[in-house]
Specification:
Layout: H1 2-29, H2 34-51, H3 59-82, H4 88-106
Helix pairs in contact: 1-2, 1-3, 3-4
């Protein structure tokens, strides 16, 4: 159950951080205004909160692993929300990152 909980939290964190950054981007770069920027700031704050809920207590490990989730999630967000079409190198890089996440977070460690 711990791995499942961790994966759900990584997905929630990805939506909050990537969505928050996208909202700020839209507010500033697409001139949608302060409401979008403010919503982005709130979502980015929620990302920070969700990250603290990971079962592992090591901040550095969580943030390092989340970096890989962020890479893959950003490409997926771009595909779904902005119509971005990743090439094979984008996909290969994201897969490498996700393998890194699995090694960092879920490799067996001595107790």
């Amino acid at each position: 159950m711990t791995v499942a909980k961790s994966l759900v939290l990584f997905a929630l964190a990805a939506v909050a951080e990537i969505g928050g950054a996208w909202l700020v981007w839209q507010g500033v770069r697409e001139h949608r205004g302060w409401l979008w920027i403010g919503a982005g700031f709130i979502a980015l704050g929620l990302y920070g909160l969700v990250a603290t809920l990971q079962p592992d207590a090591d901040f550095g490990r969580i943030l390092a692993a989340y970096g890989g989730v962020f890479v893959a999630g950003s490409l997926a967000w771009g595909m779904v929300v902005d119509g971005f079409r990743p090439d094979r190198y984008d996909v290969a890089g994201a897969c490498i990152c996700l393998v890194g996440v699995a090694v960092i977070m879920y490799a067996p460690r001595p107790a």
